[in-house]
């Protein structure tokens, strides 16, 4: 394990390192190189130029802790402002993009469930197929890197990684949410729509008072499941420098080389968010259990 070779004379110094293979031959070569730099005065020149500590430190040292888990670093990460901000950005992106996806998908689902054929339905089917078939990471990279190439307006400072992630995940998620909404709308008995028409309700009233309330019960469980999946998908945004939870974790790991501790802290944050929405899903399902036909029939019997 590498120790410090050059250390500045100030208390705020942060440790940095470079990766090498766990190979004794490589370690021997590095030790030899450092010894040569020390003997010919190169390291002494660096110390003088950059005000580095003159204390001689071993390049290759043995870490007495071995692979022990650093609980102090783990709890520091759990309570750090950086991790809290990263988790807040992750949750914000997931909530906003899923809300936008739902708003987009509802009229699309209504159109696709309508009778007859039209050019619009063909376009919507192509939209759903393309964005469900293309990898989410590819869509994210396309919007962040390729979109500014075709449209110069996206080269401005307002087009941030947060906005690019929001657009990419909203579009991608809407393609999945369309199918959930279509299935929920199809689950509503067609006879109720005919009865509402017979009562003289307008099309808007039929959807608002008859179809949507019943479709909501069917759509909610898979929608929450889809949101949980989206919450984990937000980690892909780290590749375009969005400072969400995983990106913050990677920065801390690169700075300290304490992989297990920081990844474990990130895992706790993800699990806490996921378990909260799983709990919410159970509460919602119990709330709408009165509308379950099977349970209603069993209670009536």
TrEMBL record:
<comment type="similarity">
    <text>Belongs to the binding-protein-dependent transport system permease family. HisMQ subfamily.</text>
</comment>
<feature type="transmembrane region" description="Helical">
    <location>
        <begin position="262"/>
        <end position="280"/>
    </location>
</feature>
<keyword id="KW-0812">Transmembrane</keyword>
<keyword id="KW-0813">Transport</keyword>
<feature type="domain" description="ABC transmembrane type-1">
    <location>
        <begin position="87"/>
        <end position="280"/>
    </location>
</feature>
<dbReference type="Pfam" id="PF00528">
    <property type="entry name" value="BPD_transp_1"/>
</dbReference>
<keyword id="KW-0472">Membrane</keyword>
<dbReference type="InterPro" id="IPR043429">
    <property type="entry name" value="ArtM/GltK/GlnP/TcyL/YhdX-like"/>
</dbReference>
<dbReference type="InterPro" id="IPR000515">
    <property type="entry name" value="MetI-like"/>
</dbReference>
<dbReference type="GO" id="GO:0006865">
    <property type="term" value="P:amino acid transport"/>
</dbReference>
<protein>
    <submittedName>
        <fullName>Transporter</fullName>
    </submittedName>
</protein>
<dbReference type="GO" id="GO:0022857">
    <property type="term" value="F:transmembrane transporter activity"/>
</dbReference>
<keyword id="KW-0029">Amino-acid transport</keyword>
<feature type="transmembrane region" description="Helical">
    <location>
        <begin position="122"/>
        <end position="144"/>
    </location>
</feature>
<feature type="transmembrane region" description="Helical">
    <location>
        <begin position="87"/>
        <end position="110"/>
    </location>
</feature>
<dbReference type="InterPro" id="IPR010065">
    <property type="entry name" value="AA_ABC_transptr_permease_3TM"/>
</dbReference>
<dbReference type="GO" id="GO:0043190">
    <property type="term" value="C:ATP-binding cassette (ABC) transporter complex"/>
</dbReference>
<keyword id="KW-1133">Transmembrane helix</keyword>
<dbReference type="InterPro" id="IPR035906">
    <property type="entry name" value="MetI-like_sf"/>
</dbReference>
<keyword id="KW-1003">Cell membrane</keyword>
